[in-house]
Amino acid sequence: IVCLSMEGGAAASTPAALPYYVAFSQLLGLTLVAMTGAWLGLYRGGIAWESDLQFNAHPLCMVIGLVFLQGDALLVYRVFRNEAKRTTKVLHGLLHVFALVIALVGLVAVFDYHRKKGYTDLYSLHSWCGILVFVLYLVQWLAGFSFFLFPGAPFSLRSRYRPQHIFFGATIFLLSVGTALLGLKEALLFNLGDKYSAFEPEGVLANVLGLLLACFGGAVLYILTRADWKRPSQAEEQALSMDFKTLTEGDSPGSQ
Amino acid sequence: IVCLSMEGGAAASTPAALPYYVAFSQLLGLTLVAMTGAWLGLYRGGIAWESDLQFNAHPLCMVIGLVFLQGDALLVYRVFRNEAKRTTKVLHGLLHVFALVIALVGLVAVFDYHRKKGYTDLYSLHSWCGILVFVLYLVQWLAGFSFFLFPGAPFSLRSRYRPQHIFFGATIFLLSVGTALLGLKEALLFNLGDKYSAFEPEGVLANVLGLLLACFGGAVLYILTRADWKRPSQAEEQALSMDFKTLTEGDSPGSQ
């Protein structure tokens, strides 16, 4: 029942079904990104920064950053369950940085496009949810960095914050998926109008894209919440880990 | 650490903060229902079955049934943690029946309205997600009833199905919230058009309603997933429960 887990050690085994679920989630995620590209390329004229096509950078960046990469960042602790915790932690933080930077490009794209066109900013539910997601994501990243990567946070504080970090991480990811769905819906109603109800190919493609978004969110959530796929618990690691080097540096060995 | 838990007994104590979080979630849920009513009453002409106002029964029924009641059904095991498990189980099933019936009325309302108006059915992402939610909800209810309420399912089968039931229950609830957001967005873009970007009161009210929907979903998820707020674990109950009456009836005492 108890797995010995040391920095750099690989004592815990990988559950048999986990790799298949992870592979399935990645297939969903990549299909999602490809289909977003296909939608923008086939029906929305493609992407270019210095033109009206600048808007199209927004959905693509958001799907890559705040959906695909954010989702994968959450899965890092399940996928690399046998790697050293510090390595996994850094990869988790890095994926979130990439996601944040790509999302920032997506955010600039839409504000810049609105400014050039003279459109009103931030009136829709999609935009309100989007700003909420972005602010929460930034705060979560800064809090995560301060507690878990920056050395010096006491072990007790890390233990108390960890469940909150995990809950809000999952919630922000789900809210990102929801916000993407709202944005997709907005784009469809703006662009297609009455043609949407005539089952035009673009409408059907975009509906399938929406279902894929929801499925990717569900797949990540499933892998994340399966109790027997979690890394060995904090208490066990704390009790069994023997890495005095990190201990003396003020970094608890069992910290995530 | 181990709590004695017997049918009808009240050995486990309630965590100090839980009632406040539950109260907050209920406040959010009731505000959500009231605000949906206010939106439909103030800006959409109210509700009547035999007229064009039949459509308005759809959002109200869905918010009451598939958001508020479904969410509360998930919370039953946290709120009534000291009640007999069978009582809690029946209440959980009943709340889901109410939610299902109210959602069915909401579903009939929109299909009937579409038929009278000659509108196309099931072309939008909202409707695809809605049908998916409804089918999954029905299957989940039937599976839950067969495994947990109908006597005779072996204990091992119940134990294996329980985590799946909980995961899919939470996922269907979140998908319901997402579908409601898509529907709200659709209604706003259809009804307000250009006025949406002029920050008309209806648009702002509906945006706040959307944020409330997301917050209610988040609050239910938080209460549901907090590890220290769960009922005492299955294994402990199984080992400690002494209710031979239900055992001989083929119903495992620790079953949920």
Approximate shape of chain A: globular
Q: Architecture of chain A in CATH?
A: Up-down Bundle
The CATH class of chain A, by name, is: Mainly Alpha
Q: Please state the average pLDDT score of chain A.
A: 88
CATH topology of chain A: Four Helix Bundle (Hemerythrin (Met), subunit A)
Oligomeric state as shown? homodimer
Taking all Cα atoms into account, the compactness measure Rg of chain A is: 21 Å
Q: Low-confidence parts of chain A, pLDDT < 50 over ≥5 residues?
A: 1-11, 239-256
Helix content of chain A: over 70%
Total tally of structural domains of chain A: 1
Largest sheet of chain A: none
Most extensive contact: A-B, 40 and 40 residues
User: Into which percentage range does the β-strand content of chain A fall?
Assistant: under 5%
Give a brief outline of the structure.
Two copies of one chain form a homodimer. The first copy, chain A, contains eight helices and no strands.
Account of the 3D structure:
2 copies of one chain form a homodimer. With 256 residues, chain A is mainly α. Chain A has a single domain, classed as Up-down Bundle (Four Helix Bundle (Hemerythrin (Met), subunit A)), CATH 1.20.120. Chain A is built from 8 helices and no strands. Chain A is globular and about 55 Å long. The N terminus and C terminus of chain A are likely disordered.
Name the features:
homodimer, 256 residues, mainly alpha, Four Helix Bundle (Hemerythrin (Met), subunit A), 8 helices, disordered N terminus, disordered C terminus
